[in-house]
Fold:
Amino acid sequence: MTDVPPLPETRLDYRVAHLAERLAAGDLGELGVRLELRGDTVLLTGTVPSARCRDEILAAAREELAPHPLHSDLLVADTSSPDHGEDLT
Structure:
């Protein structure tokens, strides 16, 4: 049996997988944020319930993936009630 050395932590694909595990294990795991590696840039997509959640995810991504470029397409769901009634006429 040949021993296979572990992936070095400097590899971006390893770091992206680690971030995905970190997000899934935390309080934000149910959000369904997706991470895609495109060249040396990481794309985050999905919908989050608040700007605070988005900011926490982006902070974790910047910490884990620095200095690689990060592009965020995270949308904040608007869960506030409407300020007027809907006109159905």
Notes: The chain is about 35% helix and 20% strand. The helical segments are 12-25, 51-65. The first helix runs from residue 12 to 25. The longest strand covers residues 41-48.
